Amino acid sequence: MRADIEFRRPDFTLRAEFEVAPGEVLAVLGPNGAGKSTLLSVLAGQLAPHRGRVELDGTAWLDTERGINVATHRRGVGLLAQNALLFPNLTALENVAFGPRAAGVRKAEARETAGRWLSEVDVAELAARRPGQLSGGQAQRVALARALAANPQLLLLDEPLAALDVDAAPAMRGLLHQVLRRQEKPTVLVTHDVLDAVVLADRLLVMLDGCVVEQGLTREVLARPKEAFTARVAGLNLVPGVAAADGVSFGDSTISGRIAEELEQGEAAAAVFAPSAVAVHRERPHGSPRNAIPVRLAALEPRGDVVRVRGVVRDCSLAADVTPAAVADLRLTPDDEVWFVVKAAEVAIHPTSGGSSGA
């Protein structure tokens, strides 16, 4: 999909140009009011921009110069929003079968398709329940099945985890990771959570005040943020590698941690931990089980009561927040070789799609 659009309101202008390849997930990240949901509405055909073009597989959905604006129901768009928005009077199976039925598929075939997708999202046993009998996480899984059962040409995910509680969100994120990596169609994911981008997205687009300020591979954008907002949201350390028996294999070492989402050995994964969980040592410490990562110091950044110590290992940028006294005691300066140390209990292991990197 290719998009080049400009949408104007009296108090706001959205300008965005980007591409999403077949099977690729593009995450759109930005603060409230950045224009993320407006962008999705234009892609879905719910808003008409003042200027622009949206094209998928060589077919123009929108071309203001030629007067083309294909209606929403003819674009073949699948949408998963914050809230499941299921039809309350229909069962889960009937909700999922609605899309194929609306496209003219026979009832028996539509129900078969719906059953297959309910199994795909692990809620086949809930087929006969109505939305009022489902938990938030269960309803969102049914909504995902409904979006996919219609065989969309473009999948739009609008903050799909925002309304879920802390217990349901990781499971849903893991499910999305498994489903999206098997998709052959492009996907655009709007989120405010950098972890969603790390786990689900191949590429990242950052928006501020209606403008695209950064875009590229997720790992590269987060590793070398150009804008203060991007640097702020990329405040987690993200060490990319592959899943191993007890953590993430990174180069010739393994970073241990707790498994936050289900993954298989050998698949792309990342170890995620906060800069505040990192201690800095001149020598490799011994004793209780800890992860010790050798880094070369790149910068020291005062941040109020702490100093953010930035280090590089291989192509990965990492950060540690330490006190000014610790910086003075260790006599830290750029280009020093030191150890970043973090307890395994502070590290979460997540699957990844597009790669990830540090704060």
From TrEMBL:
Transmembrane segments: none annotated. Residues 7-234 form the ABC transporter domain. It comes from the Bacteria. Gene3D superfamilies: 2.40.50.100, P-loop containing nucleotide triphosphate hydrolases. The keyword DNA repair does not apply. Residues 286-351 form the Mop domain. The keyword Translocase applies. Pfam families: ABC_tran, TOBE. InterPro entries: AAA+_ATPase (IPR003593), ABC_SmlMolc_Importer (IPR050093), ABC_transporter-like_ATP-bd (IPR003439), ABC_transporter-like_CS (IPR017871), Mo/tungstate-bd_C_term_dom (IPR008995), Mop_domain (IPR004606), P-loop_NTPase (IPR027417), Transp-assoc_OB_typ1 (IPR005116). GO terms for molecular function: ATP binding; ATP hydrolysis activity. Keywords: ATP-binding, Cell inner membrane, Cell membrane, Membrane, Molybdenum, Nucleotide-binding, Translocase, Transport. GO terms for biological process: molybdate ion transport. PANTHER family: SPERMIDINE/PUTRESCINE IMPORT ATP-BINDING PROTEIN POTA, THIAMINE IMPORT ATP-BINDING PROTEIN THIQ. This is ATP-binding cassette domain-containing protein. The lineage of its organism: Bacteria, Bacillati, Actinomycetota, Actinomycetes, Pseudonocardiales.
